[in-house]
């Protein structure tokens, strides 16, 4: 067998092995992947890293091109798998430590979304944080400090009660207030992004009191650094 064919076979075999390692049962919502397969982030990260590594390695020509692609796929897979493992651990710890009623931790691909209801953080129509309900924010800050290779986007949301422009401003001020606590907890401001979406991104119907309560929230989107 020529060097070309041998290297091609190795590359294809490595790709197949990585793909099989990432297989999970179909039919489950993405948010529930953790319950079905606790290694889903690691496997997804491994595939992503392998594809990136393979693409980088494939910049050479001839047999050397395939050899570099195979090596790049292996290295990229290891890097991606490490990122996935980190996100797995952080999600487990946050679910364990954030015990306030209504706070949730959901994984979506290679990012974590922590949601805190408005009532956990603010009085109605206010962006001043309640001093008695900041424990979860410092817990989250501690998690971000333990996993420094991430960025967190803090996003404020409101229901549709009142003026839309006012709600947008309120959501932005709430995001900034929350971000200031994370920074007071030791998270560098270079890792914290804030934004407000007002009433534009509801997760429930604004036609009921329960739905409006669910829509009033702050989300923390944690992403690994590239």
TrEMBL record:
Keywords per UniProt: Cell outer membrane, Membrane, Signal
GO CC terms in record: cell outer membrane
SUPFAM superfamilies reported for this sequence: OmpA-like
InterPro entries referenced in this protein's UniProt entry, alphabetically: Bact_OuterMem_StrucFunc, Gly-zipper, OMP_bac, OmpA-like, OmpA-like_sf
Listed Pfam families: Gly-zipper_Omp (PF13488), OmpA (PF00691)
OmpA-like domain ranges (all copies): 109-226
Entry-linked Gene3D superfamilies: OmpA-like domain
Endpoints of the signal sequence: 1-21
Chief localisation class: membrane
Location(s), subcellular: Cell outer membrane
Matching PANTHER family: LIPOPROTEIN YIAD-RELATED (PTHR30329:SF21), STATOR ELEMENT OF FLAGELLAR MOTOR COMPLEX (PTHR30329)
This protein's name: OmpA-like domain-containing protein
Organism: Thioclava indica
């Amino acid at each position: 067998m020529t060097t070309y064919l041998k290297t091609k076979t190795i590359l294809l075999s490595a790709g197949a092995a990585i793909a099989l390692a990432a297989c999970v049962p179909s039919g489950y919502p993405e948010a529930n992947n953790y319950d079905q397969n606790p290694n889903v982030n690691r496997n997804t990260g491994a595939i992503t890293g392998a594809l990136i590594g393979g693409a980088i390695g494939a910049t050479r020509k001839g047999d050397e091109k395939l050899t570099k692609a195979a090596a790049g796929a292996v290295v990229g897979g290891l890097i991606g798998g490490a990122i996935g493992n980190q996100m797995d651990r952080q999600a487990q710890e946050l679910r364990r430590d954030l015990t306030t009623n209504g706070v949730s931790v959901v994984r979506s691909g290679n990012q974590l979304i922590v949601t805190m209801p408005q009532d956990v953080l603010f009085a109605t129509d206010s962006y001043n944080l309640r001093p008695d309900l900041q424990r979860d924010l410092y817990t989250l800050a501690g998690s971000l400090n333990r996993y420094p290779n991430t960025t967190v986007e803090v996003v404020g949301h409101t229901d549709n009660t009142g003026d839309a422009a006012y709600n947008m401003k309120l959501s932005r001020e709430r995001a900034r207030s929350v971000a200031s606590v994370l920074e007071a907890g030791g998270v560098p401001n270079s890792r914290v992004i804030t934004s407000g979406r007002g009433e534009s991104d509801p997760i429930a119907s604004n036609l009921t009191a329960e739905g409006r309560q669910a829509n009033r929230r702050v989300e923390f989107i944690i992403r690994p650094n590239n």
